[in-house]
Amino acid sequence: MERIAIVGSGVVGRATGKGFSGLGHDVVYADSDPNVVRRLCQEGHHAIDPGALMKAQPSIIMICVPTPNNRDGRQDLASLEAALCAIGPLLASGGYRLVVVRSTVLPTVTENLVVPALEAWARGKAGRDFGVCMNPEFLREASAEDDFLKPWIVVIGELDRRSGDLLEGLYRPLCERSHAPIFRTDLRMAEMTKYAHNLFNAAKISFANEMWLVSRELGIDGNQVMALVAQSAEGMWNPRYGIRGGSPYGGSCLPKDIDAFANLVRDLGWRTPLLEAAIDVNRRTEVATGLRPDLAESITSAAT
Fold it and tell me: Residues 69-89: what's their mean pLDDT?
């Protein structure tokens, strides 16, 4: 069994910590909010300020701090940087430890920010003196603890094999119980997978909203339409449909139907920006893959 420190004890941190505690691991929560620390202690958990991590001496540190956007919409990494400063002295004290990024971070953040910062603190080499993994969470806020205990997939972005082996060992009992696959990737792919996961959900919701808005204007029940589409459209029930990037989206239906519907909406004085974006994306893909070089000049002109 391992001693695991959960740095950042919000929804993700608590679900992660309680899940591993239930497997018999010794879990300590670290949070900069004294109210959170006090509440966790009142619930019977071991909770500390991040400055006390040295005393706890965990062998695995999981970073679960929030990564909100700042006013200009860019990711704010202040909490992550603060977590790295709290973890640094622990790494400098010697002994191999694994640092796991569970926070949602943009691709390259782990290798370009987390790894160099920890190496500077440890005066050592990541992958040799300490391990690093990026382990995105796929937890729903309303059911985070249950989702952790019954994962449908676990993705481990590993800096090196030793790091990945150690983290996979933590998850294996949960995955064997729920028959969930474990996928091991590099750091960037794990970061990108988390963002693509969230953005796909956002795009699907946006499509349903766009169809609802148009349906409402036409006097149609858009919710009933999408309920039927959920059963009729292959993209809904076939998880392999449409996921190979760079492939043509030609054929006898998709290009002509999306153009026809977008033109209907324009003629009525409405807009379907998501459908218009879909047309643009696929035209750009056709240019990038060499299928429609004739479109290259028009796309470049539109961009300028």
Answer: 96
Q: How far is CA 77 from CA 65, 67, 81, in A?
A: 9, 6, 6
> Within 13 Å and on the Cβ side, how many CA atoms surround 52?
12
The whole-model pTM stands at 0.91
Concerning whether 85 is annotated as a catalytic residue, the answer is no
**pLDDT of 240-261, one tens digit each?**
998 888 877 777 788 899 999 9
Give the span between the Cα atoms of 105 and 114, in whole angstroms: 10
Helices (H), the chain: 11-22, 34-42, 53-56, 78-92, 109, 115-122, 144-149, 161-178, 187-217, 222-232, 234-237, 254-267, 273-288, 296-303
Question: Which residue in 41, 64, 85, 253 is the catalytic one?
Answer: 253
